[in-house]
Amino acid sequence: MSSERNNGTKSFLTAPSFYAWLTILCTISLAVGFFGSLFGILDERAAKGFYIVAYITGGYAGTVQSLKALADFEINVDVLMILAAIGAAIIDNWLEGATLLFLFSLSNTLQDYAMGRSRRAIQSLMKLRPDKALVRNEDGSETYHSVEDLDIGDLIIVKPGERIPIDGKVKSGASTVDQAAITGESIPVTKEAGSDVFAATMNENGVLEIEVTRLAGETTLAKIIKLVEEAQSKKAETQRFLDQFESRYAIGVILFTVGLIFVPYLILNQPFDPTFYRAMTILVVASPCALIISTPASILSAIANAARNGILFKGGVYLEQAAELTSIAFDKTGTLTIGQPVVTDIVSLKLQNGQQSASEDQVLSWAASAEQYSEHHLGAAILREANERNIEFEKSENVKVEIGKGVQARVGDHEIKVGNRKLFNGLTNEIHDEQQKLIREMEESGKTVIYVSRDAKLHGLIVLADQVRENATGALTKLRNMGIEKFIILTGDLQGVARSVAEQLNIDEYYAQLLPEQKVEIIKKIAHKETVAMVGDGVNDAPALASSHLGIAMGAVGTDVALETADVVLMADDLEKLPYVINLARKAKKVVWQNIIFSLAVIAMLVLSVFFFDLPLPLGVVGHEGSTLIVVLNGLRLLRS
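and the corresponding structure tokens:
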């Protein structure tokens, strides 16, 4: 059971029928030889023939791996097992040698099957993607095509209850889509014209016409599977240490075994057969199979668990790093906040002359009329608010946009202006003193204040701000309860904006108006004292992500840069996944050390039993292989959410 076999380069999964049949043939041969001899059906020579068949079938995989290791001038666990079986044959203990190889073969087969569960948990996602898609042809007809044959720009039809076969953009139709397979989101997401959709997600209740935006091999689903497979090949530091330790330890066991044979026999004049038998038993029980498999069994299971919940670890080393975090730095826009402005307040103005101003609904209606053709993000926010309130607005004419100031338009018989102070040439001085104070307070807190006038008279204010995510407070509370000591906001936004978000989330430390290189400097400074993660959008935060101990990209569905930059990718815009990441990492670390301690304890107990209680080889084999299966099963507990 070399680390190479455990990592899947030569595993039961790659050729299941072959290795499974070898184990079955070994079992049958051993059983026929043992029971035939026991009941007198077979003589000693015939029984030995069946044991030899058990040797060949049970030892095939181990022999192949041993020869490959020796060709590379390495000695591993497989070499120890094969030598022990050969030793048993030399002293004519064919039954015990065959039993050793049977249990070794069975253990390897079961381990590879169990370890394969974590791989199959991810690869099964590919089965969720349909093989065919209903394509709308240029002549209006509809025919089914293989997903692999789809080209960018093709139009496909997805009916209610069907899975979406490929990444694309909704051209027409509306529905809710269950994206749990990709993002881990438990609540279906509304999709309409312009929305992005992803392969393997479930269309629930509407017909969608989708334009293909990615080829089958380039979908988000395909990238997820590729990233997880790469992550499983990137070993944790503990695993790398154990892999290096295996070869040195195996050499030590062989030298110790040689000493156990020749010192008692040549120097102490003890009989050869019992001395050799005891040495072969030591060779078996001292082999570190359970120890070597203890880490990958746990790490791969945790990586698979995370991927099923919309979290991608780039490797086992990052899982270990997540368990050690003490501080987390956050980008603000798009991470702690939703990343787009929303209307927070509409204020009906009181003027210095005491005139009565318009109502809030009138102010919003006028502003929406002027902004209805605007492409500015503030204009879009005003239109969204009007639509959500079911406010009717009129068609505008003669629209004129003044860059950096605002927009003016003719609405009916009136001239409407919507913009900042610069657009109104001192007209804002007519606002009542109390409201002037309120405006200053809102601007200092990072909010954007938009003025609305009709026919050169100010009537109201529309106040906008980027909103803190609904789940941000809950996520940070959980992280605090888990022992994360420090939270930091790093943003290129204004000081007032950073302070406002920090106050809402009870974060003491924040840095504003930062360039990307300044974020890196702060991260490096923190990293000297703390184990720090950087959470950002994976694009403009890439340098800071790379400089932290652990780079975490938020909301990376469909974002190639985020998938490539960060160490950990949260596929959905869900801060609640952060506590899950750290909790899973800590559980994985706990299970790894449980396995390591248990493995070492079993080796010590079995070795001592050989010397003090003459532990027979079959019991040593059972204890050795049993402990290996126990650590594998313990690691597989991490597959559970």
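(Above: one complete record from the training split.) DSSP finds 22 helices and 22 strands in the chain.
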